[in-house]
Amino acid sequence: MYKRFCVNCGKETKDLVDGLCRECYIKTRKQEEKEIEIKVCYICGFIIFENKKYDSKNFYKKLEKKFGGKIIKIEENIVEIKKESDDILLIKIYYRKDLCKDCKRVLNKKSYNYVIQLRGDIKKIEEIIAILNKNGYLIKNIENLDNGVDLFLDLNKKGFKTLLKKIKNYTKNIKITKKVISYDKQSNRYKYKVFISVRL
User: Fold this and answer.
1) Which DSSP letter does residue 88 get?
2) Residue ranges of the alpha helices (H) in the chain?
3) CA–CA dist 182, 30 (Å, integer)
4) Could you tell me whether strands 114-119 and 189-199 are parallel, antiparallel, or unpaired per DSSP bridges?
């Protein structure tokens, strides 16, 4: 492997910017500083920035896109970006531990978006619950009734479709209804609770 040297000071370095080491390059460019605050979920570790979730790789891509440049160094809470104008932007990041919306929903037993109302054969009901537990479905609560059980789950659309296929292995007597519970201004969509009535 060829050695790389700064054309200005002669320092050997792995990373050159326009033929210069980082220190020499910074001296030749106009510098700007900014401060941003981000949240880091202490459960899943994802970064929350401008109300969106990112893993670390996509977070840094977001910074490059937002500030119009390429990251040339990341050091603790300082990110250096070479902007399209060739100027240097130093971003100081303040981290704050928090819970993301997804983890809050998982931890909150009262938070659910699907209710599976299982009625009929007790043995089949127990088999379906066992399958849900085995496949990692998060049952937030179980309400035992005289004629069956209600299961309260937190699911995404993909998880719901997979769950429905598993239930259809036991019965085709399934009725699905939706109830509007709120309106999300951020996504411009209504939020629903879905009730799945299953007769076994």
Assistant:
1) E
2) 22-28, 56-67, 101-107, 122-134, 157-168
3) 49
4) parallel
pLDDT above 60 (res 136): yes
- Position 110, amino acid: K
Concatenate the DSSP letters of all residues of 32-78 into one string. EEEEEEEEEETTT--EEETTEEE-HHHHHHHHHHHHTEEEEEEETTE
Distance between CA 175 and CA 136 in Å, rounded? 24
Global pTM value = 0.51
Decide if pLDDT at 1 tops 60.
Answer: no
Nearest to 104 by CA among 37, 190, 46, 162: 46
pLDDT (tens digit per residue) in 149-174 = 999 888 777 888 888 888 888 888 99
Q: Which residues contact 11 (CB under 8 A, 6 or more apart)?
A: 5, 21, 23, 24
- Rounded CA separation 5/15 (Å): 9
For tokens 């429905």, the residue is 164
**Taking residues 186-194, what's their average pLDDT?**
77
Of 114, 108, 104, the C-alpha closest to 159 is: 114
What the block records as the tokens of 69 is 């440049």
Taking residues 42-65, report their average pLDDT: 89
| 3-class secondary-structure state, position 122 | helix
Round to whole Å and give the CA distance between 123 and 121: 6
